[in-house]
Amino acid sequence: MIFKNSFTAFVAALIIVACANESNRQTISGTLTNAEGKKVSLVGFVNGQPDTLGSATLGSDGNFEIPISTGRLSFYNLVVEDNGAIVLAFDSTESPVVSADVDYINRTYEISGSEDSERIRDVFVSSVKYETKLDSTMKVLREATQNRETDLRMEMSQAYNETRKDYRAFLLDFIDEDTTSVANFSVLQRHDPKTDLAYFIKVRNGLEPRMKGNIFFDQLANNVATLENQQKQSAAISAGQPAPEIALPNPDGETITLSSLQGNYVLIDFWASWCKPCRIENPNVVKLYNKYKDENFEILGVSLDKDKAKWEKAIADDNLTWPHVSDLKFWNSAAAQLYNVRSIPFTVLVNPEGNIVETKLRGKALEQKLESIYGY
């Protein structure tokens, strides 16, 4: 009798465990209309590369259920054969449920069972509305321009700019609503990190506790860190800041420093023999040097060359008679890194006290600046 009761209890326990396992089984499921016979797959990413985690073929009712086993929070694509994909983000505790008409898959889909995926859906659906309006307005604007309909062109131009403004406000407000949402990745794709770096930083900081170690997050974090560093470097060479010291060899191997030229207005001129815009600009720089060289004006040429012979030949050919330095390290030049030089020609005008007056002066702008300083 004791054995019978024990056996009954054991069977009951197995049933309970089986039911518990069934209820905890992770799946992605839903209904996709207008998709009979199509294959639907859940695609994850391993080291950034797509990996199909499971798939199903849709019947006439459009219902599907794919058993899956995922890990920590990450991105996934629910791919419908020939009809695109839905972007999702979830972890092993969630079983998303999707419904969509595959003919309009990113316009009308619904999702439950995953808060981050729901937020992604809100971004996509709202963005489609804004982008559709922008496209239709631009089409009318182009036609009005071609037909020389001035009033309509002005009206459509204003409407286009207002829609862009509203779209931008929606996206930035979306981030501010929840800086920890994975959906913010989708928002950032619609922004330029150079103009909206503050929001890239917000998203990076908000997602770090949830996603650090995820390849997509780590790429974002690295890119933001690089831009932050560039921003700090740019701030360090803004007007009014002390000009960072430069100490590099001249063609004879003698070390020349920027500080040794203090007491003059000094134009730091980043250039190279291989840089055509630099070589085109050189005659203008020579003219200005000859005009002001006896008025406490000096130039320090900093070359991004690699080949010493070509550097020296360019100095001679272009008649550049001011001091020149280079470590012959191309874009890895220590001075270029220090001054955050991303393109050449690039100039920095330094006053006699060693502080930066202005950057990126060339051509007419450089001529006018020197005229304002020297009075002629």
Write down the Rg: 31 Å
CATH class of the largest domain: Alpha Beta
The H-level CATH homologous superfamily of the largest domain, spelled out, is Glutaredoxin
What number of domains?
Answer: 3
**Number of H/I helices:** 11
Looking at the structure, the CATH topology of the largest domain is Glutaredoxin
Provide structural commentary.
- The protein has three domains: 112 residues, Immunoglobulin-like; 115 residues, no CATH class; 128 residues, Glutaredoxin.
- The chain contains eleven helices and 15 strands.
- The strands form four sheets. The protein has a five-stranded mixed β-sheet, with helices on one face. A four-stranded mixed β-sheet has the order 4-1-7-8.
- Helix 9 links the parallel strand 12 and strand 13.
- The radius of gyration is 31 Å and the shape is elongated.
Task: Briefly summarize what is shown.
The protein has 376 residues and is of the alpha+beta class. Strands 13-12-11-14-15 form a five-stranded mixed sheet, covered by helices on one side. A four-stranded mixed sheet has the order 4-1-7-8. The protein has eleven helices and 15 strands.
